[in-house]
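User: I've been trying to design a sequence by hand for this structure and keep getting stuck. Would you show me what you'd pick, starting by listing the structure so we're on the same page?

Assistant: Good idea, let's start from the same input. This is the structure you sent:
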């Protein structure tokens, strides 16, 4: 039976690696700017706590946002976290409203110990997604009517592998290496109704294939029932490799823009407090320096982005007779800046979630409900509701049974 469980898990891993690529996880008109809608790579547990991750250190959770966390895993445990989501997007401006719904298989993460003080994690995650289509009717004069057509699709995915080391039982350091790949295409057209006018169609295509690095560290200590963790992450600025092309149909111009794009420097800090196995409270702050990253050969084309996350998790009694006492109860909130110049408002969201432990005490079904808002009615206002279902599986693969 144990071998059968391993085989099923490995089959799911292979299937998900094939399926996750080419997922389109957004319907937002805002995804036509920059590299699309960026994903914060939060797993189900983290997402239900407002995206809290940098200062979290938990034995039963995979946390790819801070690679220093991998060494927290038990030395006999293999862990897997698989997440799917259902997203409803509602947006509108002074001209009207619209709504769209889609669902996606979002991420897959694995984690296991290499040695007593060393943990390893790997997985596949979304980096960004583009998915929009809309049309605006305009009048130039009595003899010239035209429509502005906008359409975009594609995504950037990434696979990662990371190691974490415990040092002196109170400090952990780790690093992730990511391989990024994917295609994004944005189409913009000015189409005249009258046959005597010349229409213009412009296409921008990004074909990305590159790697990047992330470093993480955590200081942690327990005083009786009180535990504290301070975490930090850092990514350096890096030239983004790939093929970047712009086409204009009216003039048949083709422009290659290779070596004109960067991945930004990013850093963040986080703090969490735990009381026994019952209560966890944390706060994260992260900033991404998009304003100093090259985009179409220029800096300041995008804006630097900061994010503040708050989260709480409560569990009354891990071995309680009542199932509600053994459940995890989570709430969270976040506020962040948009990284695109076309939006000057703050994006914010709130979340709540539940963790349902199975008979196997290491396996948890996590559910998350999120509400988020961005933009203003004067420009483009967007509301979204997302439901995420994730399965965090923990199996004792490395435990030697006595005969």
């Amino acid at each position: 039976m144990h071998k059968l469980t391993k085989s099923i898990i490995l089959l799911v891993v292979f299937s998900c690696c094939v399926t996750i690529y080419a997922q389109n996880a957004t319907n937002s008109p805002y995804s036509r700017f920059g590299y699309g809608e960026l994903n914060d790579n939060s797993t189900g547990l983290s997402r239900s706590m407002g995206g809290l991750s940098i200062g979290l250190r938990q034995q039963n959770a995979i946390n790819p946002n801070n690679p220093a966390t991998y060494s927290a895993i038990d030395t006999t445990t293999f862990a897997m976290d698989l997440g799917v989501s259902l997203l409803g997007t509602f947006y509108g401006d002074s001209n009207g409203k619209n709504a769209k719904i889609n669902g996606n298989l979002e991420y897959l993460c694995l984690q296991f110990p290499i040695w007593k003080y060393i943990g390893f994690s790997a997985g596949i995650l979304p980096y960004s997604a583009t998915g929009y289509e809309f049309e605006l009717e305009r009048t130039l004069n009595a003899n010239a009517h035209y429509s502005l057509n906008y359409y975009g699709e594609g995504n950037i995915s990434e696979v990662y592998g990371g190691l974490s080391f415990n040092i002196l039982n109170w400090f952990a350091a780790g690093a992730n290496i990511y391989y990024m790949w994917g295609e994004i295409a944005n189409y913009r057209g000015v189409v005249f109704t009258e046959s005597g006018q010349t229409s213009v169609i412009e296409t921008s295509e990004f074909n990305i294939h590159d790697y990047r690095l992330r470093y993480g560290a955590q200081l942690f200590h327990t005083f009786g029932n009180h535990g504290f963790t301070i975490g930090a992450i850092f990514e350096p600025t890096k030239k983004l490799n790939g093929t970047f092309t712009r086409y204009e149909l009216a003039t048949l111009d083709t422009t290659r823009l290779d070596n004109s794009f960067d991945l930004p420097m990013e850093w963040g800090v986080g703090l969490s407090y735990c009381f026994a196995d019952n209560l966890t409270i944390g706060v994260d702050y992260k900033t991404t320096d998009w304003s100093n990253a090259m985009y179409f050969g220029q800096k300041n084309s995008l804006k630097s982005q900061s994010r503040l996350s708050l989260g709480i998790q409560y569990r009354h009694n891990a071995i309680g007779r009542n199932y509600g006492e053994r459940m995890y109860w989570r709430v969270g909130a976040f506020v962040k800046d948009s990284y695109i110049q076309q939006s000057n408002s703050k994006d914010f969201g709130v979340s709540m979630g539940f963790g349902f432990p199975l008979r196997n005490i290491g396996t948890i079904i996590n559910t998350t409900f999120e509400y988020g808002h961005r933009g203003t009615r004067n420009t483009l206002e967007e509301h979204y509701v997302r439901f995420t279902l994730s399965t965090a599986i923990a199996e004792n693969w490395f435990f030697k049974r006595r005969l």
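That's my pick for every position. To get oriented when you compare it with your attempt: Residues 2-20 form the longest helix (19 residues). The helical segments are 2-20, 44-47, 323-326.
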